Amino acid sequence: MPPTPEMSGHGAPIDELRERLRGAGSICVLTGAGMSAESGIATFRDALTGLWSRFDPAQLASEEGFRADPALVWGWYAARRDGVRRAAPNAGHVALGAFARRHPGRLTVVSQNVDDLHQRAGNAGTIRLHGDILEDRWLEACKRRPACDTLTATPGTPPRCAECGNFVRPGVVWFGEMLPAGALEAADAAAERCDVMLVVGTSGAVWPAAGLAGRARRGGAHVVIVNPQPSEIDDEAHTVLRGTAAQLLPALLDGL
Q: Where does the chain bind substrate (predicted)?
């Protein structure tokens, strides 16, 4: 494979990509932790500082860890939820949302992030591969019919069902868990049908999300990576832009 081009994010390369995006019938955008980091949301591992630095990630992001110390894990996610609520969409989120409003049906956002910044910026249909940190669900499937609503849980750390004692947990994908039903299938379909894929702010180290760029390229899409640092899937790209989402997405999408 020939060397992957690297571009500064300004000038003729951006103009060429803008024309490609202008003519694309379907655009898929895969976003990772770097995009949310520009809004002040620390990546999972970067957030393991201070009080949390002595914990193994598996203690805070696995069913086993939750069962071993529910209060600890609930406290960790409560702190992260507060950070998400305080954060605001950055210029990259805003550019994607504005483009989607101007061109209904042309843009699909697939995100590895568990925050709601894409939704707040206007992409309500974002495909969430790793769940929703602001959503509650039961630790175990409710055996009652009709099923208990998590809103009826008795407050606590964590809340639990007054009827059966079932714990409430965050609606994120933990280590060892399957992705949400239908999310990966929808992401695969978006990657296969797109004419252009933008891969934004992801290291390319987390699978199966990292495989979407290759799937798009094999389907004939032009693949563009937007990241200030090298990623593990740069070789899947036709074009690599070294810059951040907030810098480059407005340059690529505004005015189209």
A: 77, 80
